[in-house]
Design goal:
Layout lengths: L5 H11 L5 E8 L9 E11 L2 E10 L4 E11 L8 E5 L4 H4 L3 E2 L4 H4 L2 E5 L11 H14 L2 E7 L12 E7 L6 H27 L1
Antiparallel strand pairs: 1-2, 2-3, 3-4, 4-9, 5-7, 5-8, 6-7, 8-9
Helix pairs in contact: 4-5
Length: 204
C-alpha cells in the first residue's frame, strides 16, 4: 500500500473532525509552450472556521523552478487598501533581510517582534500582551511564521479575492491532528484579539 501524502492526511483529519472543506488539485501540461519543461502543479484545501478561513496551499512549477507552500488562517478587515504589514519574531538577521521596519515605541513589543510596513508608525495598542504571547507560542510551533495584513493577498478563493486580509501563516504544510488543534485554537484567539483591537481603535 502506498504511503499517504500530507494532502491525503489533512483531508482525512478534517473529515474525522466533521469539517466541511473544499479541496483542489490541478496538474497542467504546457507541451506547446514549454516542451522541455511542461509541468505545473497546484493543490489547496480550504474551509471556513467561524469568521476565519483556513487555507493550506502547495504549488510547483518545473518551468520556473518555483515552489510555494503555506498554511494559514485569514480574516477580512476594514482597512485602507494601500495598508500592508508583516509581523515576525525578532531575529538578528532582520537587520539584513527586513526592509521598511517600523517600531511601536513599546519596548515589550519592539524587543520581541519585528514589524515591516508601508506606514511610518503604528500604534502599540494593536498588539496586547496576550497577542504577543500567542504569536510567539505559534512561532515556536510553526516557524517560519508571520502575521500579514495585505490587500488581495489570497486571489484563488472567491470570498477573499480583492479583500483586505489579516492572517497568520507558516511556510509549512500543516496536516497533523495536534498541529491543527494548535493552529485553529491559538491562531483564532490571536487573530480575534488583534481584529477586536482594530475595531475598537476605528470606533474611537
Amino acid at each position: 500500500m502506498d504511503e499517504e501524502t500530507g494532502f491525503e492526511i489533512l483531508c482525512n483529519n478534517l473529515e474525522n473532525r466533521k469539517i466541511e472543506f473544499s479541496s483542489h488539485v490541478e496538474d497542467k501540461l504546457y507541451l506547446l509552450l514549454y516542451p522541455d519543461d511542461p509541468m505545473s502543479k497546484r493543490k489547496f484545501i480550504t474551509f471556513r472556521n467561524n469568521d476565519l478561513y483556513f487555507v493550506a496551499y502547495d504549488s510547483y512549477s518545473t518551468k520556473a523552478y518555483d515552489s510555494t507552500t503555506f498554511t494559514g488562517l485569514y480574516g477580512v478587515i476594514d482597512k485602507p487598501k494601500n495598508f500592508n504589514l508583516r509581523l515576525y519574531k525578532k531575529h538578528w538577521i532582520d537587520l539584513i533581510l527586513r526592509k521598511n521596519k517600523i517600531k511601536t515605541g513599546d519596548i515589550n513589543i519592539d524587543s520581541k517582534l519585528t514589524i515591516t510596513s508601508n506606514l511610518k508608525t503604528i500604534s502599540p495598542d494593536l498588539f496586547s500582551a496576550k497577542a504577543i504571547e500567542l504569536f510567539l507560542r505559534l512561532n515556536d510551533k510553526f516557524a517560519p511564521f508571520k502575521m500579514i495584513i495585505e490587500n488581495d493577498y489570497i486571489t484563488f478563493i472567491k470570498d477573499l479575492k480583492g479583500k483586505i486580509l489579516i492572517g497568520i501563516e507558516t511556510d509549512n504544510w500543516v496536516y497533523k491532528d495536534e498541529q491543527l488543534d494548535i493552529l485553529l485554537d491559538k491562531g483564532e484567539a490571536l487573530l480575534k484579539d488583534v481584529m477586536e483591537r482594530m475595531i475598537s481603535k476605528n470606533n474611537k
